[in-house]
Every structure is written in structure tokens, then in C-alpha cells.
Write a structure and sequence with these properties.
This protein has 28 helices and 18 strands. The chain has 697 residues and is α/β, with parallel strands linked by helices. Helix 2 runs parallel beside helix 3, helix 12 crosses helix 13 and helix 16 packs antiparallel against helix 17.
Length: 697
Amino acid sequence: MAEPSVAELLRRVVATLPAGEVREGQVEMAEAVAKVLASGGHVAVAAGTGTGKSLAYLVPAVSSHKRVVVATATKALQDQLANKDLPLIARGLGQPVKWAVLKGRSNYLCRQRLYELERLGEQQQLDAPFAEALDVPLDVEAFGADLSEAGRGARQSSSARAVAARQIGEEVRRLAAWAGSTASGDRAELEFEPSIPAWSSVSVTADECPGARRCPSASECFAESARARAAAADIVVVNLHLLGADLRCGGEVLPEHDALVVDEAHELEDVLAASLGVDVSPGRLRALASSARGALTAAGRRAQRGDDTAPARAVESVLGVAARFEELLAEGEDRRLPPGLGGEIGEQVTLMVDRLERLGVELRRASDASGGPGGVGGQGGAGAALGGDAAQRCLRALLGVDRCREELAACISAGGDEVVWVTGGIRPAMHSAPLDVSETMSAQVFSAMPVVLTSATLPRGLAVRMGAPSDSTAELDVGSPFAYKAHGLLYCAASLPDRRRPEAEPAIHDEIEALVLAAGGRTLALFTSRRAMTLAAEVLAGRLPWPVLVQGELPKAALLEALSSQSAACLFATMSFWQGVDVPGPALTLVIIDRIPFPRPDDPLMAARREAAGRAGFQQVDLPRAATLLAQGAGRLIRTATDRGVVAVLDPRLAKASYGPTLVKALPPMRRTRDRAEAEAFLRGIHAEATRALPAS
């Protein structure tokens, strides 16, 4: 008996949904994915909102009998795949489907660190020195907004440290209680949000973890259990950052797999550039020094403040270079650094490498004196000796120190294919990123397995630009089932004055007011800068009869819930709300975009990519990125087949510039107008219908 086609399998799955209907574009995509998984090659699919793209790639992935890694950009999409789509497929196909969600190590509670806390807690109360001994950095940057009001009022004082330590202690006790009941150890399962220092005290990063062979608690490790489940699964759901970590480590992070699907692939290039690059901040150096001080003290190597010993001097020297590094970053603007870094920044980075190397020497000596890798091959777990704990802590601190030293050295030796830059502001840091990730993708991914790239706003040519061979890569645009021309209107405020003129901002505020009044509220206003958002909110809050919610006043989820649940609220937000926002129904009928979201001219990485592209820099770098982000912003409007509304772009360049048609082509195919009266009439009609549909009071 012949195997059922992927179209038939898709119909079986969709039939289990209420009013389920297979869409033409969904079938087209599923068949293209099935072909690639069966025969090789690669495919890039632009699948507009409403296509049902997750089922279109999951059904052929499940039926391929291959192990497929699905990499997504957001936690929300990971949760949808694991908790909704994959169980739906299992029910629809009437067969078991083995899947697993795999996250980075820092997302899981570390049993070894918790055991160390419990054993040390038997000897001491959790006060500030004790918290420091647990590798908790009690400095300003580590806490940020996590301190209580009392702690924030006196960050630098000993009383603030005591307050912070008590707060950490209470949270750690809650985490310890949770560890006794959780099966996964996954932070996402917590019913409260722990502070950064509290979670850091019971978790490890990938840079710190010594690995299963050198950890006495490996048999109980939540992260290792998650890796084992992933190795036994057919579908492994990860995020793009973990995919980047796997590429950085040469394939040691993810289980062996036969194919890769990348959803929200328009974000892949930037995420991989960040994952394959370097990010070193003064706060990271301080955290390493704090971790090392606690480990050295636990190992009996005197490293407390004020001690005149080699371990103490090694710790203080790192703190000293971190402070000077922070001063240097604060003195300048965001800027790109030359090869070899040069100047005082280069001298300071070279000094940091030296100081971290000295600290590493002290940690190696302490680890050796404490019994090597700390109990490997012994009883492990709660039965490990406190001396073994000290060795483990020294080893973790050493791994973190060595990793940071290697990254700083890599910045010094970066070649012409990498960009190194510094940023100032509230969180100053030094960064590096590869100018082009295509070579890595070509060597480790496209040459090794079939790859599917998909997104609602997938730029043309992305797969080839990312390293896919052009002769074996297909491109497909399956569109969207939504009636954009009937339900949506794209309005460009072509008559607004040039942004450089003083009357521009008042005119923009008047434009927003008129549109929001016509819509009866129900607005998401997206801005390209926080300054523009804040000013517009301040001006319009007193001119609009509905609540004006502003990004930063509440958590993102709470703001979206307020917009969805209130009958006529307005939400003003910046770039983090341009993507991943889903407010279906009449609660949102107007999306305002204040200007075309071109990359900043002074962004160091973008500037380097422009230089590499030469005269084609604008066409190859700026325009595609602006088009993708503009389409993402506009895509917040119509989320279901019955949604209606207006996307208003308050940037005359969309209508007047030579590149305008390219940007418009990337947007959903809505009707277009430059006439505000037409946009207002359309909005008033939607508002009137929504008002009539409300139940009588």
C-alpha cells in the first residue's frame, strides 16, 4: 500500500482543528519541504501571515523519518510548536511523535551548584560575605532593576549589600524548594521571576560548565537530561541562539541531525553574527572576579578584600582593569575599532588579557590543591566533600576566565573579515562579529544537510546570501490567504514636512491624533526611537480620550494584554514591538509607523557591511533590512481572516523616494492611498461596525 502524500497527511491534521481548512499555500509549502527532506537540496519559503507555515514544515518533517532540528526566533514560537502544533500532529496522524525542546545550559538549574549552596548553608547564614562566597557579584550592574527599593537607594553601601544578600537568600531558598519538585529544572516553569544574581547562583553558563565527565552531579544534571531527551527525539525544537552556539562549537551543542528548519529566518543573519562574535563588558569582568574570589576563598587561598596575597592581588587587578575599561568606554561614543584595536583601548584590552591569565594561574593552583576536578568518579551529588566543591568552583571560575581571555585576545587579532566596536551608555561593552556568516553556514550547514528557511517576511535571495548553493536552492512565495485588498489600507502621509524642519514633529503629532480619533483608539504606534515615542506619548496623552500605554511602564506581556482587553486603548512602543506582537480582532485596527526603519548610519557593523558592499551598500544592506522590518511592523495589523484596519506610515519617502516601490512591494498587498481623509473614513467605518457589534449594556 502506497504511503499517503504529504498533502493527505496535512489534511488529516488540519481536519482535527475547529473549522479546519487546508490552504493552497500551505499545501504548496508542505510539498516543497517534503521534496527537500526526501531528495536533498534546500528551499526558502516566504509564507505570509495565516498560511499555517508551522504545520506546513512540521508535517513533512515528522513523516520524513529523519531527525530534524527546528530553530525558531522566539520563545513564544517554541512553546507553540512544543505545546500545540506537535501534539496536534500526533493526534491527527494517529501515531506517536517524539519531540523535545532544548535550551542553553543557563536555562536549567544546576544540581551541583545547588548542592554546594546547601552544604555551605549548613555552616553559615546567608549574609553578604556568604553571598559573595557563592559567586554572587554584588555590584551595580549585576543587580540593575533586580534590587528592592531599599537596595536601590544605597547600592554602594554595606547595608545595600546586606539587603541584596537577604533578597538573594530568600529567592535561592525558593529555587531549592522548586528543585525538589521539578522534572526538567527549566527556568521557564518557575511561577516567579528570580533576580539575575539569584538565578546565577544556581545555574551555569555554557562557558563555565565543566561538562558531564568532570562534574560529580552529572547523573542528576537537568541540562544533560534535556540533551539526552533531544538525542532520542525525532523533532528537536531550539532557538536561533542555540543554533549559533552549535556552529560556534563545531556541532557539539545540538544532537546529530539529518535536516534543519529555520523559522523566522529573516533574523538568522543577525543572531548568528552575534553568536559567532564576542561581547565583553566591565560587568562581565567584575562577575568573573567575584566568582574567582569566592572560589579561591572556598579553596583556602586567601582572596578576601584587603588581603595582601597573590590570589587577592589577582582578583583586585581584574577589578582594577574593569573599572578603567568602563571609564574608557564612557568617554567616547559608539565607535568601530581598527585592526589590532590601537590606542588606550587596545592597551587596556591587552592588559585585561594579562590580568585574566594571572587570575587563571591562581585558579589552577587552587583547583589542584583542592583535589583536581572535584569528585569525578566519586559519590557525587549531595555526598561530595566540601573540598570537592571548592575544586568544582575553581574549575567553573577558571573556565569562565579562560573563555573571556580568549575572546579578548580574538578581538586584538581580528582580521578584515571581522568587525570590532565599542558601545557606551548604560551598559558599555566591547563587541565583535563576523562581517559575513555565509562561510560558516556553507561549511557546517548547507553542505551537510537539507535546510528549510521560512518567514512571513523572508527577503529574496537570503538563502544564497547565507551560503546556500544557488544550483540546489529553490525559492518559493506562497502568499497569504487573507483578503488584504478588501480588509487593509496602506496610507502614506506624503504631505508631511521634511523631518529636519522644526514644524515636522507637531505635524506628526497632529497626524497621529487625527488617525487615532478616527479609529476610536485601538492603535499600536511604532516608533524608530525612544525619544520620538516618549515625546508623542507626552503630547497626545492629554489630547486623546483613551488610555495611552507606553513601552516601559509595564512588562511587554502586560501592555499587550491591556491593549487586547480594553475596548479603545492605544499603545506607543519602539523596536521590540515591531515583531512577535499578536493582537487579533477589533482591539487593533490602526498600526502607525513613524518612519522607515533604516539602520542607523553610525551602527559599526552596518557601516562595515556597507563598506564591504561598496557602491551597492544601500541596495544590499540598508534597503533589504528596512523592507523586512517595515513588513514586520505592518504585519502586526491583520492577524486573522476577519481583521480589518489601516497601516499608516508617517514618512513621505515611502511615496516619493526612488526606493519607495521596493519597500511597498515587501508589504502585504493592501490598497494604497495618500489621502488621509480616505484613511479616516475607512477607520470610522470599522469603528462604527465594532461599536454596533458590542452587546447592549
